[in-house]
Amino acid sequence: MCALLWVSLTSAIWTHLPNSPLGRKKIEAAYRVKTLEEMPGPTVAKFVWDIFAKRGLSRLHELQIEGVKRYGPMWKASFGPILTVHVAEPALIEQVLRQEGKTPIRSDLSSWKDYRKQRGHGYGLLTAEGEEWQAVRTLLGKHMLHPKAVEAYDTTLNAVVDDLIAKLRRSRHQNPCGLVPNISSEFYLFGLEGISSVLFESKIGCLDPVVPTETECFIQSINTMFVMTLLTMAMPAWLHKLFPMPWDTFCQCWDYIFQFAKGHIDQRLKEEAEKVARGEEVEGRYLTYFLTRTGLPMKTVYSNVTEMLLAGVDTISSTMSWSLYELSRHPEVQASLREEVLAVMGGRRVPGAVDVARMPLMKAVVKEVLRLYPVVAANARVIADKDIQVGGYLLPKNTLITLCHFATSRNAAFFPNPGTFQPHRWLNRYKGHHPYASVPFGVGKRSCIGRRIAELEVYLALARILMQFDVKPDPEGSGAAVKPMTRTLLVPESEINLQFIER
Ligand code: HEM
């Protein structure tokens, strides 16, 4: 019976479709690979209007969702002098990443590279390509990607969490009702102190009662540099001469960022040299120590440490801020998470890496936060060695492909009620989502090298905060939702003030 049906179906297809001109055309159209020229997308004028007149640079993440509605899962747009293809469906993002090759290229990050060339600096992991990138990635991977190697940072990170808790306490005492205003600024300092402790294994004083001026300047420089990144990339080079402000400011910020990192590296190396001179044993577990012992040129050490310092600030601050913001608005989730932490701790006060590994709801909360607010809302790839096919289009080699993670992770087709904070969706293994629908740390060879350190840092800090405080929305606040905005990375648009009540 089945065989009969199969024969009659196939013969119907073969006898009718190819012989009718309409059917043949349909088949040909379905199998023909389309060109970039055929891809939909806004005109240059419309894109410039969206970006500059409608404050689109800070709304780039929202433009992803508008793009999907208007053009479907793939569209092209010119970002200043750069033509980029947007890909906004998990299966298509997977197609891109599976063809990325041995040493993937993230994006041109043209202005970051231009600055380094101009000043004679080296490239770090964020900006390096090819064999140069591969060599450092392999070296650092040993200390940053292996679970056991990362677990060993928990004592160092816990010392930073101690300082964070003390700082939150000071802040809540200085304000009425235990309010901690603008929590993101507290977490910038925490992020910087955290990554510094991993890189230098010594305090740099970010969480002290008086924040060193140079630290404030460093954070300010990062903020401004991120604002100027998109602007400098969107402006063609000849415009830099006509309107020099964005490029000049961008360079000044980078100068400060490099100078800050170099100052700390040199200081640490000097301390070590003095120890050696006194005949004391030098035993370092920190990343700068490993890097300096690999024989890499100092220029490469400086650029890598600088880029890692940078990578550890906004990412941690944003994730911590949104986590507490959402937990304060969902007291039932906060209570369950606290219960989980207390059950694992069984009366002990300071969780370690082994403890947080036994907290599934904690991991689900952070996953859900990064789904709603992916710090890298749009990532990118350039496939330099070959043309590739994605979603039925032929993308010529060297096309900049923008991976629209914000759009996929807020798409109801992959996450029901996508705008709501529902950490439990990650605990129900039967309601699987597409593995590329929410990939906040990226996927594959070029994915975030700091992922394990970042997760450990966030889990340790959240666990301790919840053990010590009930976190509530600002009692004087309007209750209006805080929106995310793009500042190269995705950050809260306005200040988040939260009430910390001692438990
Ligand atoms: C919640 C925190 C963080 C998030 C969400 C995050 C996310 C990302 C993403 C999406 C990428 C690009 C991956 C790709 O292109 O496939 C990346 C790259 C990178 N991240 Fe993170 N990151 C975080 C924290 C950190 C921290 C703390 C560090 C520092 C230790 C760090 C260092 C880096 C570096 C060096 C790269 C470039 C890796 C390479 O190109 O080989 N990140 N991160």
User: Considering the protein shown, what is the CATH homologous superfamily of the largest domain?
Assistant: Cytochrome P450
Distance between the termini: 71 Å
Helix content: 55-70%
Name of the top-level CATH class of the largest domain: Mainly Alpha
Categorize the overall geometry.
globular
Strand content: 5-15%
- Count of alpha and pi helical runs: 21
The structural domain count equals: 2
Low-confidence stretches: 1-18
- Supply the CATH architecture of the largest domain: Orthogonal Bundle
Instruction: Tell me the major beta sheet.
Output: 4 strands, mixed
The hetero compounds bound to this protein are: protoporphyrin IX containing FE
What do the pLDDT scores average to?
90
Radius of gyration based on Cα positions: 25 Å
Give a description of the structure.
The chain is α+β, with helices and mostly antiparallel strands. It has two domains: 69-98 and 377-397 and 408-417, no CATH class; 109-372 and 446-503, Cytochrome P450 (Cytochrome p450, Orthogonal Bundle). It is 55% helix and 10% strand. It is built from 21 helices and eleven strands. The strands form four sheets. The chain has a four-stranded mixed β-sheet. A three-stranded antiparallel β-sheet has the order 3-11-8. The protein has a two-stranded antiparallel ribbon with strand order 5-6. Helix 11 crosses helix 13 (245-277) and helix 17 packs antiparallel against helix 19. It is globular and about 75 Å long. The model is unreliable at 1-18 (pLDDT under 50). Protoporphyrin IX containing FE (HEM) is lined by residues 106, 125-126, 137, 195, 307-308, 311-312, 315-316, 319, 370, 375-376, 379, 440-442, 446-450, 453-454. Belongs to the cytochrome P450 family. One of its GO terms (cellular component) is mitochondrial inner membrane.
